[in-house]
Amino acid sequence: MKMDKYYEVNNGMLWEDAPDEKSYIWRYSGNPLFDIPNMEHFWHICNSATVMLNGEYIGLFRCEDKRGIPDLYLGKSKDGVHWDLETTPIVFYNQDGSVFKYPYAYDPRLIKVEDTYYTVFCADIEGPSIYVAKTKDFKRFEMLPNGFLPFNRNGVLFPEKINGQYVMLNRPSDAGDSPFGNIYISYSNDMEYWGHHKLLMKNFLNNCYWERVKIGAGPAPIKTDEGWLLIYHGVQKTCNGLTYSMGVALLDLEDPSKVLYRGNRYLLTPETTYERVGFTDNVCFPCAALVDSEGKITIYYGAADTNMAVAFTTVEKLLEFVKKYDNK
Ligand code: BMA
């Protein structure tokens, strides 16, 4: 599907063709990406964000060092598979020049709006909340004033202003591993003050158990002629703990607080060993999606809170999926 109205050619975007016509999503043959047991500095790398810039890759990685502290690290890559990761965390600066301090940070998203890259991440400061930093050069990251209160996670910014406003998805929660969570949509004129909050999507729609416990937005929404494709995670509880799968919905282009379609079944669920077994078993946690001018989509997701993995789909396939399995 031609998507050159919205997306660039993206030469060098990591891609493998579908194994057959019926698959809606397929995994990269080189998964998982990192040789975790032999890493000198890190214990786990998961739930990370990537973008392409001048034919190369830049990523913000959620890495846990060998003390077990999750933090955000910058990575660079030529092919989206082999990454050079920094070994010290990114330093975020407050607007007065002081260093923004937090006990730990995780689950970043990286979204370009106009000429600025925004990092939206979760940090735990008297409870988890959503924090936003901006950068233009990936050298200096500057914090914006705190726009959200604890407890909140999974902040995901739309890649453009809609009707003149910045739009953020978020997921109010509690201090721990929340036993609940719905996706809200919030608006801002300046990226500082967020309001007009509205419930966008509630978990467990029509008894779909794969998203029984909670849901949260994944990568930045993907713009199409038919609406914004939102890949999100849905969580189910079993006797063995929680299972994180990916699902997909389509939001109205002009008014993204309207859900046009929402798939009733998961798009991807833990099935391979690297998704099923790890630090936290049974987790597929998407944080980034690259899209090119032909509508190819390359999703980066965390696998079992241990390693990074990649899956492929297309705009056409996701549109077909949400309509075919619409949950109404
Ligand atoms: C969520 C977050 C994610 C994590 C997931 C599964 O609450 O903490 O970072 O991947 O749980 O453990």
**Class based on secondary structure composition and strand pairing:** mainly beta
**Domain tally:** 1
Assembly form of the protein: single chain
* CATH architecture identity: 5 Propeller
CATH class identity: Mainly Beta
Write the H/E string, N to C: EEEEEEEEEEEEEEEEEEEHEEEH
Strand order of the largest sheet: 6-10-9-8-7
Strand content: over 45%
Number of helices: 2
Mean pLDDT: 97
Compute the gyration radius: what is it?
18 Å
> How many extended strands?
22
What portion of residues is helical? under 10%
Ligand identities: beta-D-mannopyranose
Distance between the termini: 26 Å
- At the fourth level of CATH, the homologous superfamily is Glycosyl hydrolase domain, family 43
Task: Provide keyphrases for this structure.
single chain, 328 residues, mainly beta, Tachylectin-2, Chain A, five-stranded mixed beta sheet, five-stranded antiparallel beta sheet, globular, binds beta-D-mannopyranose
